[in-house]
Amino acid sequence: MKVCCHCKKELPLDYFQKNRAAKDGLQYRCKDCTREASKACRDKRGHLWLPAAERWKNRPENKERRNKTTRDRMARLKIENPEKYEGDRRRWQLATKYGLTPELKEALVEMQGGVCLICFSPIDPLTCATDHSHSGNYIRGMLCTFCNLALGQFKDSSENLRRAADYLDSCKEVESEATTEDFEIATTLLQEYLDGKNKES
Questions:
Q1: Angle at the Cα of 116 (from 111 to 118), degrees rounded to 5?
Q2: Domain 100-156 is classified in which CATH homologous superfamily?
Q3: Distance CA 76, CA 68 (A)
Q4: CB 12 within 8 A of CB 3
Q5: Which of 42, 61, 63, 140 sees the fewest Cβ atoms within 10 Å?
């Protein structure tokens, strides 16, 4: 436990950022107080330092440096705390790809009854797929992995899906009327056709 020098609250050590210059290796102010002080500074002097910071961030060498720092930090976290690593990775992926948080995704799954919107099989908020429109860039719903992959394979085309459904229905009708002899004849004709193609080539 440590006392914040600003709010005077006694808090766990996790509530303080690291500071190599300090005796205990931690900042004197807690994270909340540091965040509030930084915001106040940005509001007061942001117009002075923000353009310079943006120029620094946009330089290719600095961008790669920041990326390497993030990769190294995540690699250490993956070894030291795998559960936190998975949570941070999942939160980052949801935020960057869909603008969601894990809590909001869980709420969306609960709103649709905890099932996939296509096959109605139960889905887990942690592992289910977030289906989104590639053209309109909006979230359509939460699906199981198989249904989400199927939509991708059909290129999100409702016409292709209707044709696939008609194809399956027609095949069922043929299967119900066909006999074993019909399948043997069809197999023989197909084999003869393939043999002829091989001879031509």
A1: 120
A2: His-Me finger endonucleases (3.40.1800.10)
A3: 12
A4: no
A5: 61
pLDDT tens-digit map of 67-90: 888 889 889 988 999 988 888 888
Inform me whether the pLDDT recorded for 184 exceeds 90: no
Average pLDDT in the chain:
85
CA separation for the pair 159, 94 (Å, rounded)? 30
In angstroms, what CA-CA distances link 191 with 33, 180, 188, 195?
78, 17, 5, 6
- Token duo for residue 99: 């603008």
The pLDDT value recorded for residue 116 is: 95
DSSP H/E element including 141: strand 139-143
CB atoms within 10 A of CB 90: 14
Among 51, 92, 54, 56, smallest CA distance to 71 is for 92
CATH code, 2-46 = 3.30.60
**Helix, strand, or coil here: 130?**
strand
Closest CA to 15 of 35, 40, 32: 32
pTM of the model: 0.53
Range scoring the smallest mean pLDDT among 15-19, 50-54, 72-76, 90-94: 50-54
**Residue 130, strand partner residues:** 142
